[in-house]
Each structure stands twice: as C-alpha cells, then as structure tokens.
Amino acid sequence: MRFRTPAAVAAIMAALAVPVASPATASASETGRAGDIVDAAPSAFHPLPGQPTGTKAWKIRYRSTTADGVPNTVSGTVIVPQDGRTGPRPLVTYAVGTVGMGDSCAPSNNLPYGTAMEANLIQQLTLRGWAVVVTDYEGLGTPGVHTYTVGPSAGRAMLDAARAATRLPEAGLPADTPVGIMGYSQGGQASSWAAELQGSYAPELKVKGTATGGVPADLMKVADFNNGSYGSGLIFMAAAGQDAAFPELRLDSYLNPAGKALVAGMKDGCVAIDAIAGSFKRVSDLTTRNPLEQPDWQARLNQSRLGRTAPAAPVYQYHALGDELIPYAVGRQLRSEWCAKGADVEWQTIWVGEHVSGVITHSLAAGNWLADRFAGRTTHANC
C-alpha cells in the first residue's frame, strides 16, 4: 500500500545504551554460510523512550564478509510488525547514516531505548507492515574498530542482514521474501554497494529495488570537498575506518600528536562529538605527511568507489542540491555511471535543504517508491 502521512522525526539524543542481555534463542556455527545467524536474543524497538510500536525485535549476530573476502561476524536488529498479517510481508534491509565509531553508537544498542537517530524513519517502514533489518556494520557493536566508509564490507553486511532475517525462525520471513534496500549518507554508500553487489554476492535474494540518498560515491572527492570545512571530522573518521579494514595502511605513522589524539577519541565516540572535535581542520593540521597523496591509500579508497557495476534491480537515487557534506556532483556522477551501464535509475534532486534534512524530507517519497516496487508497478527511470 502507499503511505503518505509522515511520522514525526525523533530528536537526536546522546544517551548511551546498554547491550541487550536476553538469553540466545537461535544459534549457528561461526564457520557457517554468509547470512547464517550466530546467535539471537529478544530485543525491542522504540522510536522514542517507551513509545510502543506494535513490533517484535531481535538482536542478532550473523556471518558476513570483509572487504577482502574474509568471513566475519556482524550484529544487527530484526524488527517485525505484530499487525495480525498472516501472509508474506516485504523486508527492508536498512543502513543508517553516520552514528560514530564507538560500540555504544551501534543501532542495536539504541533501538531498544528510543535513542537511535533514525528510529522514526524506520518506524515509517514498519507502519506499512514491512519487516526491517538494521545492520550495525562491521566492527560497530562487535569486536574491533568500525570499518567506517569501507563500501564493500558495508554492502555485504546489508545483504547478509537480509539473509539472516529470513533465517531467523521467530521472524516468520521465508527465503523468497521480497526485499528492499534502503539507506542515506553512510547508509547511502552501504545501500548502493549492496545494490551493486547483490547480483553476484546474493543473487538468491528477491531484491525489488534500492532507495539510496546522499551517496558518498567517490571518497577522494568527498575528502577534498570537506578538507578544512565543517565536515572535516568525517575525513579522519573515514581514515580510521579504512585503516581498521586495511592495517597495512599504517594511519598512525602519518599522524602528528594532535592527530593521534583526535583519531583515538573518534574510535570510541559517537558522531555528535566526533564531528565537532574534527571540524574545520585540514589534513595538514593533523599529519606529518598526507596519506591521501600515497598510492596505497588512493588504491584502497578507490576500492570503495561506486559506479563500476550496474545494480541488478531498479534504483531510486536522491541528493540535495545544497548538500554541504557530500557534493551534489558526486551523486550526479554516480547516476550517470549507472545509467551508462544500463541500470534502471530514477534520479531526484532535493531542491530545498541540505545533507541531514534530505533524509528526513525525502523519506516518504523513498518509501513510496519501494512500495511501488513491492507492488510490481512500472518504474520511471529518467536516465
């Protein structure tokens, strides 16, 4: 069905949450297939503290794959409406925007307490009767440093989250459940990577479409755009995330004492503090030499560049003209590259607003587009 009444958007809260401690209800060997559940425990979903949602939720850990193809374990949350529906329902695999690098920032540690920043946007999906699985990404809520901005890892984590949701018996989602992919900002990178990878990595998933916005499709261009500006903290978070995935990059060897202190704090912090701490700094302020000028760093950042593979399923891509963090031209370039490869892309410019407001003001349109895909309606590509 089409749903046109926007839900209220939750205020950003800084409260930290405690991990769910319920006993496991499902288990699988950590040497299993990608998407197999390692363990699961009852959880909860609240857009605001104590606000009921008529859903059941489970915190899961599931098998996935790193950017270099090594098996790993990722955590996440499966949410299923308790609306009396007895037939099949769609599943959306959802990736959040930047929340930070500390484990306390992980969606699964905040969704039960009403302190997750995108909970109201997720609720818009559950109110349609859709199940939702929210990945925590690699290293966010599980041991190790979060591999922030490492696109292939994030895309696989999204696809494997969808697999895991259909393998959780309590969720009641069969293997042939229709799947939508959705995310904005960091979640836009993850969802776009999931869209590109799905045909080769998870072809058995019945993906009907991907709604993706504010996509940082080219990290080198995004870094250059933010150097010394309001969003410069994201450069250093991204550097820490890339270094976590690829330790041979040796980020620490490039940082001066101020840079080492900033990055160390970012690894345990959430985005509100990290962004402020790193804002209006240039790479040269915090390094002895610029890692972004080195061939090994450029090669790894290029590994996360989008646009090389046409998504197998249709895409709804949107970007704010006035985006102050992810250049509008970067989003347009991704659209052009996908279109040139024959992808079914509907592109929308958000004419009024900036980066953060884009996910809020356009969430309804993105949800309606997915509803049309689940209903089997004709797409309206505008390449």
Brief characterization of the structure:
The protein is α/β, with parallel strands linked by helices. The protein has helices at residues 119-126, 151-166, 186-201, 219-226, 232-245, 257-266, 271-278, 283-286, 295-303, 328-340, 355-361, 363-374; strands at residues 26-27, 37-43, 55-65, 71-81, 91-95, 131-135, 178-184, 206-213, 315-320, 345-350.
Q: Given the helix and strand composition, which structural class is it?
A: alpha/beta
| Rg (CA only) | 19 Å
Total helix count? 12
Q: What general form does the structure show? A: globular
Number of strands: 10
**Mean pLDDT over all positions:** 91
Features of the shown structure:
single chain; 383 residues; 12 helices
Question: What do these coordinates show?
Answer:
The radius of gyration is 19 Å and the shape is globular. By secondary structure, the chain is an alpha/beta fold. It has helices at 119-126, 151-166, 186-201, 219-226, 232-245, 257-266, 271-278, 283-286, 295-303, 328-340, 355-361, 363-374; strands at 26-27, 37-43, 55-65, 71-81, 91-95, 131-135, 178-184, 206-213, 315-320, 345-350. Helix content is 33%, strand content 18%. Helix 5 (232-245) packs across helix 7 (271-278). A ten-stranded mixed sheet has the order 1-2-3-4-6-5-7-8-9-10, with helices on both faces.
Task: Please write out the topology.
Blueprint: E1 26-27, E2 37-43, E3 55-65, E4 71-81, E5 91-95, H1 119-126, E6 131-135, H2 151-166, E7 178-184, H3 186-201, E8 206-213, H4 219-226, H5 232-245, H6 257-266, H7 271-278, H8 283-286, H9 295-303, E9 315-320, H10 328-340, E10 345-350, H11 355-361, H12 363-374
Parallel strand pairs: 5-6, 5-7, 7-8, 8-9, 9-10
Antiparallel strand pairs: 1-2, 2-3, 3-4, 4-6
